[in-house]
Amino acid sequence: MSDDVAATKQTRDMAGRPMRRNNRRDRVRGEAAPKEFEEITINIDRVSRTVKGGRRMRFKALVAIGNKKNKVGVGVAKGADVTSAVQKATRVAKKNMVTFHMSGETICHEVETKVTGAHVLMKPAAPGTGIIAGSIVRSVIGLTGIKNLISKSLGSTNKVNIAYAVIDGLKAQVPRSKWNTTATKEKESK
Where are the alpha helices (DSSP H) in the chain? Predict the structure, then answer.
Protein backbone atom coordinates (compact mmCIF):
# COMPACT_ATOMS: atom_id res chain seq x y z
CA MET A 1 0.00 0.00 0.00
CA SER A 2 1.31 3.45 -0.85
CA ASP A 3 1.68 6.22 1.74
CA ASP A 4 -1.29 8.18 0.29
CA VAL A 5 -3.70 5.27 0.64
CA ALA A 6 -2.44 4.51 4.13
CA ALA A 7 -2.93 8.15 5.14
CA THR A 8 -6.57 8.16 4.00
CA LYS A 9 -7.34 4.92 5.82
CA GLN A 10 -5.64 6.05 9.01
CA THR A 11 -7.96 5.70 12.00
CA ARG A 12 -5.50 6.65 14.73
CA ASP A 13 -3.94 10.04 15.46
CA MET A 14 -0.26 10.73 16.20
CA ALA A 15 -0.62 9.67 19.84
CA GLY A 16 -2.18 6.35 18.86
CA ARG A 17 -5.71 7.30 19.95
CA PRO A 18 -8.66 6.53 17.65
CA MET A 19 -9.52 9.54 15.47
CA ARG A 20 -12.88 11.23 15.80
CA ARG A 21 -15.07 11.43 12.77
CA ASN A 22 -17.66 14.12 12.02
CA ASN A 23 -16.87 16.25 15.02
CA ARG A 24 -19.51 18.97 15.35
CA ARG A 25 -16.91 21.62 16.12
CA ASP A 26 -15.00 20.82 12.94
CA ARG A 27 -17.94 21.58 10.67
CA VAL A 28 -18.00 24.99 9.08
CA ARG A 29 -21.32 26.74 9.40
CA GLY A 30 -22.82 27.90 6.16
CA GLU A 31 -24.06 31.45 5.95
CA ALA A 32 -27.65 31.89 7.05
CA ALA A 33 -30.15 32.60 4.32
CA PRO A 34 -31.23 36.24 4.20
CA LYS A 35 -34.43 36.86 6.11
CA GLU A 36 -37.46 37.58 3.98
CA PHE A 37 -39.13 39.60 6.73
CA GLU A 38 -37.83 41.93 9.39
CA GLU A 39 -39.33 41.34 12.83
CA ILE A 40 -39.86 43.56 15.87
CA THR A 41 -41.11 42.49 19.28
CA ILE A 42 -43.28 45.42 20.29
CA ASN A 43 -44.41 44.28 23.72
CA ILE A 44 -44.05 41.39 26.17
CA ASP A 45 -46.48 41.05 29.07
CA ARG A 46 -46.45 38.61 31.95
CA VAL A 47 -49.94 37.22 32.41
CA SER A 48 -51.19 34.84 35.08
CA ARG A 49 -54.15 32.66 35.81
CA THR A 50 -55.12 31.59 39.27
CA VAL A 51 -55.31 27.86 39.91
CA LYS A 52 -55.80 25.77 43.03
CA GLY A 53 -52.10 25.82 43.94
CA GLY A 54 -51.49 29.51 43.25
CA ARG A 55 -50.79 31.49 40.09
CA ARG A 56 -49.54 30.13 36.77
CA MET A 57 -47.38 32.67 34.94
CA ARG A 58 -47.18 32.84 31.15
CA PHE A 59 -45.93 35.44 28.69
CA LYS A 60 -47.85 37.27 25.97
CA ALA A 61 -45.89 38.70 23.03
CA LEU A 62 -46.92 41.29 20.44
CA VAL A 63 -44.79 40.97 17.29
CA ALA A 64 -44.83 42.88 14.00
CA ILE A 65 -43.13 41.67 10.82
CA GLY A 66 -42.69 43.33 7.45
CA ASN A 67 -40.61 43.30 4.29
CA LYS A 68 -40.24 47.09 3.86
CA LYS A 69 -42.05 46.71 0.51
CA ASN A 70 -45.73 47.27 1.44
CA LYS A 71 -46.25 43.97 3.29
CA VAL A 72 -46.75 43.87 7.06
CA GLY A 73 -48.35 41.66 9.72
CA VAL A 74 -49.05 41.75 13.45
CA GLY A 75 -49.43 38.77 15.76
CA VAL A 76 -50.17 38.12 19.42
CA ALA A 77 -49.50 34.82 21.20
CA LYS A 78 -48.87 33.38 24.64
CA GLY A 79 -46.22 30.91 25.73
CA ALA A 80 -44.66 29.33 28.79
CA ASP A 81 -41.51 31.40 28.27
CA VAL A 82 -40.64 34.56 26.35
CA THR A 83 -38.97 32.86 23.39
CA SER A 84 -41.86 30.48 22.74
CA ALA A 85 -44.34 33.36 22.98
CA VAL A 86 -42.32 35.43 20.48
CA GLN A 87 -41.98 32.48 18.07
CA LYS A 88 -45.72 31.77 18.21
CA ALA A 89 -46.55 35.46 17.71
CA THR A 90 -44.21 35.57 14.70
CA ARG A 91 -46.03 32.61 13.14
CA VAL A 92 -49.38 34.33 13.75
CA ALA A 93 -48.05 37.56 12.20
CA LYS A 94 -46.88 35.68 9.09
CA LYS A 95 -50.36 34.16 8.71
CA ASN A 96 -51.97 37.60 8.99
CA MET A 97 -49.79 39.43 6.45
CA VAL A 98 -51.41 42.38 4.68
CA THR A 99 -50.42 43.95 1.37
CA PHE A 100 -51.41 47.60 0.95
CA HIS A 101 -51.08 50.44 -1.56
CA MET A 102 -48.51 53.21 -1.21
CA SER A 103 -48.14 56.56 -2.92
CA GLY A 104 -44.38 56.98 -3.28
CA GLU A 105 -42.94 56.82 0.23
CA THR A 106 -46.18 57.64 2.07
CA ILE A 107 -49.77 56.41 2.30
CA CYS A 108 -52.31 57.23 -0.42
CA HIS A 109 -54.76 59.23 1.69
CA GLU A 110 -55.75 60.18 5.23
CA VAL A 111 -57.41 57.42 7.21
CA GLU A 112 -58.88 57.08 10.70
CA THR A 113 -59.46 53.59 12.07
CA LYS A 114 -60.94 52.30 15.29
CA VAL A 115 -60.34 48.94 16.95
CA THR A 116 -62.39 48.64 20.14
CA GLY A 117 -61.38 51.81 22.05
CA ALA A 118 -58.20 52.66 20.16
CA HIS A 119 -58.47 55.31 17.42
CA VAL A 120 -55.53 55.87 15.08
CA LEU A 121 -55.39 58.79 12.64
CA MET A 122 -52.80 58.54 9.85
CA LYS A 123 -52.06 61.24 7.27
CA PRO A 124 -49.72 61.28 4.27
CA ALA A 125 -46.72 63.58 4.66
CA ALA A 126 -44.39 65.47 2.33
CA PRO A 127 -41.00 63.96 1.45
CA GLY A 128 -38.44 64.57 4.19
CA THR A 129 -41.00 64.69 7.00
CA GLY A 130 -40.19 61.26 8.41
CA ILE A 131 -42.47 59.17 10.58
CA ILE A 132 -44.14 61.34 13.21
CA ALA A 133 -46.01 58.85 15.38
CA GLY A 134 -46.21 57.18 18.75
CA SER A 135 -44.03 54.19 19.58
CA ILE A 136 -46.45 51.43 18.53
CA VAL A 137 -47.47 53.10 15.26
CA ARG A 138 -43.81 53.92 14.51
CA SER A 139 -42.79 50.29 15.10
CA VAL A 140 -45.41 48.89 12.72
CA ILE A 141 -45.00 51.60 10.06
CA GLY A 142 -41.20 51.23 10.19
CA LEU A 143 -41.55 47.69 8.80
CA THR A 144 -43.72 48.72 5.84
CA GLY A 145 -41.35 50.82 3.75
CA ILE A 146 -43.28 54.03 4.43
CA LYS A 147 -40.81 56.88 5.03
CA ASN A 148 -43.15 59.89 5.54
CA LEU A 149 -46.26 59.78 7.72
CA ILE A 150 -48.02 61.83 10.38
CA SER A 151 -50.03 59.90 12.94
CA LYS A 152 -51.95 60.46 16.15
CA SER A 153 -53.24 57.79 18.53
CA LEU A 154 -56.50 58.75 20.18
CA GLY A 155 -58.60 56.99 22.81
CA SER A 156 -57.33 53.76 24.32
CA THR A 157 -53.60 53.18 24.72
CA ASN A 158 -53.86 49.38 24.51
CA LYS A 159 -50.81 48.38 22.46
CA VAL A 160 -52.46 45.39 20.78
CA ASN A 161 -55.49 47.40 19.66
CA ILE A 162 -53.32 50.26 18.37
CA ALA A 163 -51.22 47.81 16.32
CA TYR A 164 -54.34 46.23 14.82
CA ALA A 165 -55.82 49.69 14.12
CA VAL A 166 -52.67 50.58 12.13
CA ILE A 167 -53.05 47.36 10.10
CA ASP A 168 -56.73 48.17 9.42
CA GLY A 169 -55.76 51.67 8.29
CA LEU A 170 -53.17 50.28 5.89
CA LYS A 171 -55.69 47.75 4.51
CA ALA A 172 -58.10 50.63 3.83
CA GLN A 173 -55.65 52.39 1.48
CA VAL A 174 -57.02 52.89 -2.04
CA PRO A 175 -54.61 53.96 -4.81
CA ARG A 176 -55.24 57.28 -6.59
CA SER A 177 -56.01 55.50 -9.84
CA LYS A 178 -59.16 54.01 -8.27
CA TRP A 179 -60.40 57.15 -6.49
CA ASN A 180 -62.70 58.39 -9.26
CA THR A 181 -63.65 55.04 -10.73
CA THR A 182 -66.56 54.46 -8.34
CA ALA A 183 -68.03 57.92 -9.00
CA THR A 184 -67.54 57.45 -12.75
CA LYS A 185 -69.26 54.05 -12.71
CA GLU A 186 -72.25 55.49 -10.83
CA LYS A 187 -72.65 58.27 -13.42
CA GLU A 188 -72.35 55.80 -16.30
CA SER A 189 -75.00 53.50 -14.81
CA LYS A 190 -77.57 56.36 -14.51
Answer: 3-8, 82-95, 135-142, 159-171, 181-189
Taking residues 28-40, what's their average pLDDT?
71
Q: Find the radius of gyration of the CA atoms of the chain.
A: 26
The answer as to whether 3 is a domain residue is: no
CA distance 91 to 67: 15
Q: Is residue 1 part of a domain?
A: no
**9 within some domain:** no
Quote the CA–CA distance of 174 and 189 in Å, as a whole number. 22
- Residue 120, domain extent: 38-176
CATH number at residue 59: 3.30.230.10
Domain count for the chain? 1
Residue 86, classified by CB atoms within 10 Å of its CB into exposed (0-12), middle (13-18) or buried (19+), is buried
188: in domain: no
Interatomic CA distance for residues 104 and 21, integer angstroms: 56
CA distance 161 to 120: 10
3-state SS, residue 70: coil
Q: How far apart are CA 93 and CA 103, in angstroms?
A: 24
Report the chain's mean pLDDT, rounded to a whole number: 85
Q: What is the pTM of this model?
A: 0.75
**Is 102 in a helix, a strand, or coil?**
strand
